[in-house]
Amino acid sequence: MTAGDMRNLRTTRIHFGADYNPEHWPEEVWTEDIRLMKEAGVTMVTAGIFSWGLVESRPGEYDFGWFDRVMDHLAEAGIRVCLATMTASPPPWLSERHPESLPVGADGVTKWPGSRQHYCPSSPVYRTHAVRLVERLATRYAEHPALDTWHIGNEYGCSNPVCYCEVSAEDFRRWLRERYGTVEALNTAWSTTFWSQRYDTFAQVLPPRTTPTHPNPAQVLDYARFSDDALLQCYLAEKEVLRRITPELPITTNHMPHHKPVDPFAWAPHEDVQSLDFYQEPFDAGTHIDAAAAFDVTRSAGHGRPWMLMEQAPSAVNWRARNGPKPFGKMRLWSWQAVAQGADAVLYFQWRQSRGGAEKFHSAMVPHGGTDTRIFREVSELGRELAAVPQIAGSRPAPGVALVVDWNSWWALEQGSHPTSALSHKETLLRHYAPLFEAGVPCDVVPPDRDLSGYKLVVVPNLYLMSEATADRLTAYVRGGGHLFVSYFTGISDDCDRVHLGGYPAPLREVLGLRVEEFWPLDEGQRVSLRGEITASGDSWSEAIDLEGAATVAEFGDGELAGRPALTRHTYGDGVAWYAGTRLEPTAMRALMDRVRGDAGAAPVIEGLPAGVQATVREGAAGRFLFLLNHGETTAEIALPHPCHDLLGSTPEQLTSLTLPARGVAVLQH
Amino acid sequence: MTAGDMRNLRTTRIHFGADYNPEHWPEEVWTEDIRLMKEAGVTMVTAGIFSWGLVESRPGEYDFGWFDRVMDHLAEAGIRVCLATMTASPPPWLSERHPESLPVGADGVTKWPGSRQHYCPSSPVYRTHAVRLVERLATRYAEHPALDTWHIGNEYGCSNPVCYCEVSAEDFRRWLRERYGTVEALNTAWSTTFWSQRYDTFAQVLPPRTTPTHPNPAQVLDYARFSDDALLQCYLAEKEVLRRITPELPITTNHMPHHKPVDPFAWAPHEDVQSLDFYQEPFDAGTHIDAAAAFDVTRSAGHGRPWMLMEQAPSAVNWRARNGPKPFGKMRLWSWQAVAQGADAVLYFQWRQSRGGAEKFHSAMVPHGGTDTRIFREVSELGRELAAVPQIAGSRPAPGVALVVDWNSWWALEQGSHPTSALSHKETLLRHYAPLFEAGVPCDVVPPDRDLSGYKLVVVPNLYLMSEATADRLTAYVRGGGHLFVSYFTGISDDCDRVHLGGYPAPLREVLGLRVEEFWPLDEGQRVSLRGEITASGDSWSEAIDLEGAATVAEFGDGELAGRPALTRHTYGDGVAWYAGTRLEPTAMRALMDRVRGDAGAAPVIEGLPAGVQATVREGAAGRFLFLLNHGETTAEIALPHPCHDLLGSTPEQLTSLTLPARGVAVLQH
Amino acid sequence: MTAGDMRNLRTTRIHFGADYNPEHWPEEVWTEDIRLMKEAGVTMVTAGIFSWGLVESRPGEYDFGWFDRVMDHLAEAGIRVCLATMTASPPPWLSERHPESLPVGADGVTKWPGSRQHYCPSSPVYRTHAVRLVERLATRYAEHPALDTWHIGNEYGCSNPVCYCEVSAEDFRRWLRERYGTVEALNTAWSTTFWSQRYDTFAQVLPPRTTPTHPNPAQVLDYARFSDDALLQCYLAEKEVLRRITPELPITTNHMPHHKPVDPFAWAPHEDVQSLDFYQEPFDAGTHIDAAAAFDVTRSAGHGRPWMLMEQAPSAVNWRARNGPKPFGKMRLWSWQAVAQGADAVLYFQWRQSRGGAEKFHSAMVPHGGTDTRIFREVSELGRELAAVPQIAGSRPAPGVALVVDWNSWWALEQGSHPTSALSHKETLLRHYAPLFEAGVPCDVVPPDRDLSGYKLVVVPNLYLMSEATADRLTAYVRGGGHLFVSYFTGISDDCDRVHLGGYPAPLREVLGLRVEEFWPLDEGQRVSLRGEITASGDSWSEAIDLEGAATVAEFGDGELAGRPALTRHTYGDGVAWYAGTRLEPTAMRALMDRVRGDAGAAPVIEGLPAGVQATVREGAAGRFLFLLNHGETTAEIALPHPCHDLLGSTPEQLTSLTLPARGVAVLQH
User: Where is the Beta-galactosidase trimerisation domain (chains A, B, C) (predicted)?
Assistant: First the structure.
């Protein structure tokens, strides 16, 4: 057990709670808050996220008195505090005194105060003031009995992910100097002989602001890396203070799911616990699959350790165009889904619904209408359920399949000037993830440098940017007996977004046993048929494949490429490498992935799972827990592989099968 | 009769005319203009709107000589002048010398000269120069025999409704200091504990410029109020000069219909006559209903007194994407519609079609093709018709139904961060107005502080922002025997856009006899059925209603809320309060409103009006006038309630029924 | 033969080659490049386009050494160089030292370095540095044996067509002073009495930056003229140096097709050879018609002399949303199409596919995958074919039909504030061009001041802006026996975008024998039927026509204008003038144009051409060449008018008919 592990989420139950913003309300309401929290089963709150403006209402003048009382109330009630560092949004006085600390868009438009996160991530002014506050805060509450975990900032990069101001430009130059050493190395990395872009000094380099036409892709890629790193440096500056003052306490920050500007794998080494905010879209019938993938990314970033669902909505949010409430039972279902995928904490935004401000129509545990509401009833019921299964805490899933993703590749893939703009990192990930999810095959979602040897199947969906080292590791994985599935437009470009020469995808040609002679993107609405072992149709993408050892599983059935391979399988070393040269429709993708994982011996949790039912397993010291969640709208009958005890049910007998109503949840132990 | 009434439009006929811009043409054309005006029946023109650049071509150097000749020509011809103050658009020299007088967008983009209205409404530079010009102008023409009415500015806020420059920021701070007194009061009003937005001094406050994410709603709302007020201050600065120099003359300014940035009810106390510009959209089959509502707003703002249709197009406009001409007969029909709804003047933009400039393809009374054109023939014929019915002038409609609207609520309603973005103030108003219009039930459209006691029915469509005082007045109105119809998402928020706590809609719960437990917005394209006394379907919005005394008129028939109330009726005191919890399709809305107004005893002008026919009444010293306008495309047969004399017809007999051709107009007296 | 003709493309064969960017690659690759160029049949490359950053990596420090070696290699191999002046894109140091040289949008947003062409066209800084470089370059290579032709800049105005910065504003004022002399003349030309826009001094005039509402159309029009001229001045500044140092060498620059900001007819007098870049869109079934029109514009700009296809793609491009490759055989087909329409050179962008940068996914003669690719095979095969027909070089088409277009009219037509936004210059041109193309009738596409006397038919599609002089010339053309076809909304406005008064279209009323009383634009999706000699339907536009001598060919069959003329024919003098008052669908347009050209005696190259087959003729000293290109997807049988020899075929006999496979090409001599 490492020192990092020691600072894991230290809990013997599934925590339950919310963001708590008592400063929105007069102090008399706080007493009622504590009473209702107990009623609802709250065990943890995260407080102080946006309190900077109140605790330091003038520069250097601190008033923690009111917050002391909040902390004391919570401590008395035995509610743990995941204490925010209060730096998520600076008070108006900061930008009034330092307008150069405001973020600026690529078009030169300043983002002014009036909402939140109005700071340039590279701003020394912001960082200095934030660290100064954190020093005071940590010192004051280091020994407070309510303090459980540190929550640095909040949703880093949600609203200010990239800044193009002069402060950022200067920081970018520093970052480039550190990365490349010489301007010649930069010129090589950025292919600046193209379009007369050669730099003579670092001082000439700029952020990729608005340009007359297509920008330099390597510059844009590096700016994405730099911008993520600038946010991480804000986090690390605060973390340094906290670790110094409270070395024993775990530190986290809440990420947003599938959030392109912030790479969770780059941040993970600096976090003691992974945290995620996830807001299901009730109008999207596949929102639970979207969530499932995000949960798996979060858990995988933490190498499988229990994580926190830091924010979800009790019902509707306020920031989509149309904000449907969570239908009856779905909040419970989706909360248990997080637990089923490894979460040890389920928190909401927020405790009490705001009366004013931009989030007043975001649902909360205590709605505007008070506690005589279905929302308060549903959350309280969930609080009771979670309290009944403390033995789950600390147990972990152990998937046999890994999907490989890379934020660097995402940043490169979705730039312009590509064969097609139809390829979306997230859409492609979900298209590969969904057939495994639906089959009941748990997955990890890991970065390219993760040890793959324990997985029966590794899926690589459209990993456009890939270093030779990664390609070598994938090749070695197959040679050693692994099963690999690779989709089109993978392994094309190196870390500087320069094409690997020698025939696409050059570093994977050997393991895949083929060469792609020419990309053949399809028009919008155009489909191409496939015939062979799999009958299907593809869209968006096709390509001219020459076999070099692989066998054709299906070939194109029409169009310019009729008769040429579309899906291939290559026996290589002791393993197998599959390749898909087009984008299959979901049904065919399910059939193909069923076959691929069958070959690989990657079995589902339960064979023959009814449509719509999710099945996961967590194992730990207290046993092995089977979670069954019915995301469908009809009752499902499920035969259990072993007799199990129903932890949420009322019957003491062992079950061999289960009737799971629509939106139903079962937690079983065997 | 008040002093204000004395300055009402002083006319013994329906005025007819146009914007007159003689400076576009050489003086020899002016003589022809006067001759043709007489031929066309013109009795009034509004002149000088954009003449600033010619009368003051250099700062402080005035040349009114050419304009004297224009005024003299008009006086000689007996044509009255509604004299514009020439300040609608400053000459290029103003912004050349004072670039800080240019308006700036929320994104910092300056709006440069080259079109019109390129001034910041808060600019002291603009106001000073405008007032200086008006002083000269008023002094020069105070005693001119052609001068009839003052026309200040033009279409205030059409192109520069909101400015975000530093001059505006400073003026906003002044306005806030006056409104709130202390920064603490501001913090409370704006709920600034949210997202760490607390202000320490007024100097920190900014306009709601581009922000990283959702802005503070109360700040945005106050900026809409401030911006409207900044424009009003421009108007008032000029008005002060005119009233001082010509205390007897009426003063007006022309508003645009359904123009969100400018609240006609806030301006009305400062206007002697209401004026409106309305441009029907010939491609929109419902454009006359749109117009009808705007006419009723205008008349209601003036408490029913005769108003001016200051601008309409003789045929096509030039500023839509596709500008269809007015089909044969529609210009006449729509002109009479204004009169039918209380106008005592019908003017066009413009007299003679421009040869150059941005409006050269806007139709005019004298087209590019000259007088041998259907346009000149049609307008001349209308001129003759209007001249034939002087007795109508001064008479007024007296509707028995009022719709309540509030620009403050509009400004709050259409902000982001709401349960849905599907709610539009104007669309909702028209959806409630149309079934009354189509049934032949004349309406007023009034602000929330208007005395409602004279109305048989008061309709409150989606009045999101509502003070407790307004709610109390509505409650008292019902208690006293009134009939009230309220639609969803009404009475939610106070004047600072803070939610009224205690269950939606808290201040109306008693009168409506219900509580809304949770909003349930629908997805795009989603519909929910209703069953009960009304069978219908709803879209965009639904909500979970708990009855507290009201009776269910219809319940939801499917979806998550199946079986819960959708439409309710509550007998309260001596009156009745209806409530609609979803957005009904137009047919069901018509059926519902027919029932509601039947209950209330709000009868139509004529029972059983054929589809497409509008019926209105004006009453005055000269009698009672019935207007029938056939907006449909087929002939309509109408049984008259009383024998009538046909004022536009050739027959002297009294009519008991009328055959009204498509696009036909009848003005009847009985 | 003029001095200009002496500098025509001096070739005795069809040149074949590509953009060559050796600086992207290490020198060892250059040797392979030369070897492969010989293999592929390359005879000409254009080099140095983006080399500024390498030859002058610091201001004033030149390193031509590496480029000397490139030139020497090419000379040794006998490959001709169309030498670029290297000024297409300045190195980063230029804007670092002179930020005022960067282009700025109408909204004030700077276009920063990082892509290409980041210079303000009016910038004296850019021009001075460019000319200094060109002086060095021309001096160094004036006598180099590889040097064949000068290629100034590259795709002028592709990415920086219009700049709104202060430098541009000052240059605009200079340009206006030169054009108008006095500010009063400017005021008259710009109709500044409208909206109070009168200027008192030139110093008050600005570019048409973002305005509160519709800008002054004449200002916008003049800014388009000025902006085109600013780019031309950049070209001319370099040309002056080249002509001085190498007076014998032809000079060209490559235009983009249908490129609104740059008027090819205004540039043509300053070019010795016309050059065009054309990138077919493989997903567009009509892309070859689009190309055909652009080729005809290019050839017509050069008064028929041979021109260069300077850039095309070997297969896919990278800059559309979805970039389909060229299907098998289409690259050959489309290359021959350029030759068939008069090109004497067929070049690609580019020789070797880039590894990095924004165009790395643009296809090249040598793809990433190397020479064992269908692309390299197809281009090499084409190189061999072109080498086999040197006798074609220098021959010219001689069409009997001219379409008249005018960039000035384009600039005016597509501004806002018009009767409809549905009229597009390019769409309308192609709608008139396609039925002639499909019938096998070759066309010139000429500016309004071109001598029309040699044409049997002149087509004027929607030439909105037309001087009286042009109208007089069209009238004289018909009077003298010409056949003229004019479409709606033509001849409306003068050179200052002021309407010609006296009934639309005033200057053409006499020749057309009609008056348009009122424009009657149609709604989106609205169609109007036509009945008479042509049965058809129209959309987008209709108008109320009064006959004044013309005869009705078809009248409107429904709608408000039912029974009024829609298509007319007027016998005038010895000729005939047709007029179309609506926009016909393509089938009806084909029928109408067949009748119009039949009347005019404008015969096709081959009567009864199968659908999809293009037929053109080039004639010269070496004979008469018939080109047949099958753009369709089925085999076509074509009866030849005369026995012909098949220059690309293997049979020595004369053919009287030809079987042309799908995508097939035949070059015949008779």
Answer: 401-600
